[in-house]
Amino acid sequence: MDIAHIWFLLVAFYFVGYFVLDGFDFGVGMALPLLGRDDTDRRVMINTIGPVWDLNETWVIVAGAVLFAAFPEWYASLFSGFYLPLLLILLALIARGVSFEYRHQRKHPHWARNFDRMIFWGSLLPAFLWGVAFANVVRGVPMDEDHNVIGTLFDLLNPYALLGGLTLTLLCLVHGLVFIALKTDGEIRGRARRTALRAAVPTTAVAAWFLAWTVWAHTGFGSAALGAAESDREAGVHLVWVMAAAALAAVALLAAAWFTWAGREGRAFTAMAVTIGAAVATLFLSLYPNVLPSTTGVGTLTIANASSTDYTLSVMLWVAVIITPLVLGYQAWTYWVFRKRVTRDYIPVSAAH
Asked: How many C-beta atoms lie closer than 10 Å to residue 178's C-beta?
């Protein structure tokens, strides 16, 4: 395996980390109108992610920076062809971050309620649009011989991509509900568990449909995203990896529902993290060795023609080897420090509107 392929795996790793960590943030934001009976309930839910949401969000910055440095052609085509969806994601994330900081600045119910709506939409839209974007990357987009995306926004809103957006949205919602159950107590914890179990039913059906479609498309019966394998044996091994990742996601999702029903929120949260990680890994494995397939027959970007020079990748690899363990260690320490449950008693009376 050459260094460009190693960096493809690292890009996948950083995006897996982003969706696992920021995924439950999105879920908590989407759960505000589902679980919050009053402002104190909503404050409790927001405080469960208060110490970590911004740290989780930095993973997308790292993933984007790594993508830019390691695969500049991929980055250029992706960000130009997906400009509007990515801009909407950015605006939604900004609105969500502002809302976390400003909703408690005035003791007025309408003030807080408006920012709660911004948190909800600032969580739902990125989850949905990220799913649409990644599904389109796997499916392929119209490109010319210069690797320019020539499709329109309506080309991105195809059935497979919309199903991908719905899948990621539901997975993030269940992930967030399980996290709320893990980090709270009392009535909120009970409501979160019950809602997570109810949401797990359509999530399992939708996710199974999407992953099955992804695996089916990868076999070459209907997708431009089929990798250019060198032999039938390589194609077979590749397909086994894709199916294994999809199966792991399905089993982990069922395990998360079981552990939630049994009241083992810690194990349920771990299982949901595995579910999302395996689902994202399925997409990257389906994509390999392409990075942005073309549906026009020309302009497909692969690991080989989209990567930086070996020297650049070698220098970056040393930086990643040194920095990544430090980031993981600091994040683990942060979660350990803020590991206690948040209850209504935690919210000062003066903070409740």
From this structure: 31
Neighbour tally for 214: CB within 10 Å: 28
Which residues lie across from 342 on neighbouring strands?
Answer: 184
Distance set, CA 319 to CA 130, 272, 310 (Å): 27, 30, 14
Q: Can you give the pLDDT of all 353 residues of the chain as single tens digits?
A: 689 999 999 999 999 999 999 999 999 999 999 998 888 889 999 999 988 998 899 999 999 999 999 999 999 999 888 999 999 999 999 999 999 988 878 777 788 889 999 999 999 999 999 999 999 999 989 988 888 888 788 888 999 999 999 999 999 999 999 999 999 998 999 999 999 999 999 999 999 999 999 988 765 544 444 444 446 666 677 788 889 999 999 999 999 999 999 999 999 999 999 999 999 999 999 998 899 998 888 888 999 999 999 999 999 999 999 999 998 999 999 999 988 888 887 776 554 44
Q: pTM of the entire structure? A: 0.90
Domain membership of residue 47 as a residue range: 3-351
- Between the CA of residue 149 and those of 35, 74, 108, 225, what are the distances in Å? 42, 11, 47, 15
Find out whether 160 and 190 touch, Cβ atoms under 8 Å.
no
Report how many domains make up the chain: 1
Amino acid identity of residue 333, one-letter, is W
Residues for the chain: how many in total?
A: 353
Side-chain-side CA neighbours of 28 within 13 Å: the count stands at 28
Distance CA 59, CA 327 (A): 10
Measured over the CA atoms of residue 72, residue 74, residue 76 and residue 78, the dihedral's sign is negative
**Half-sphere exposure at residue 290, Cβ-oriented, CA atoms within 13 angstroms:** 26
